[in-house]
Amino acid sequence: MLNPNIEIKKWFITHIASATGLNVYDGMAPDIDLTEYIVLDGRTSSQEQGKSGYTNSNVIIVDIITKNANFGYKRAETISNLILTAINSDTTITLPSGWVSSSLFVNSIQNLDGLNPLDNVFRTLITYNLTITQIQ
């Protein structure tokens, strides 16, 4: 049994960066002056032993962060549309040998409320659910 999050993280980073042209970080962004970036966060996985291998139900959260002089979620939501066009339930995930993805869907899309309005930081979260099997 191996950790499926390693391979799926690589796949998401590659495809999100390609769709948006933005920097994509794993877990946390560096402390540099960026106005728009994406963080892959909240990866969770549960495994069950199946006939052909371990089946994993995975959750990946894509956190779109924008910092600007304007107020509102418009830019973060525009970026979310770029990602949702590239990665949705019709998307085929190709993983390295030994892994097969059989399901991908968007669980939720939400704007993060309760931020300090003086910071001008607006975030949109996309939560993906997917099923990956490690073939034995």
Tell me what the structure shows.
This protein is an alpha+beta fold. It has helices spanning 5-20, 74-86, and strands at residues 24-26, 36-49, 53-67, 99-111, 121-135. A hairpin with a 3-residue loop joins strand 2 (36-49) and strand 3 (53-67). It is elongated. The protein starts with a helix and ends with a strand. The model has no long low-confidence stretch (mean pLDDT 86).
At a glance:
The protein is α+β, with helices and mostly antiparallel strands.
Number of helical runs? 2
pLDDT averaged residue by residue? 86
Largest sheet: 5 strands, mixed
Helix content: 10-25%
Rg computed from alpha carbons, rounded to a whole number of angstroms: 16 Å
Q: Work out the strand percent.
A: 35-45%
The class by helix and strand makeup works out as: alpha+beta
Q: What is the H/E string?
A: HEEEHEE
What is the strand tally? 5
What is the spatial order of strands in the main beta sheet?
1-2-3-5-4
Q: Which term fits the overall shape?
A: elongated
End-to-end Cα distance = 9 Å
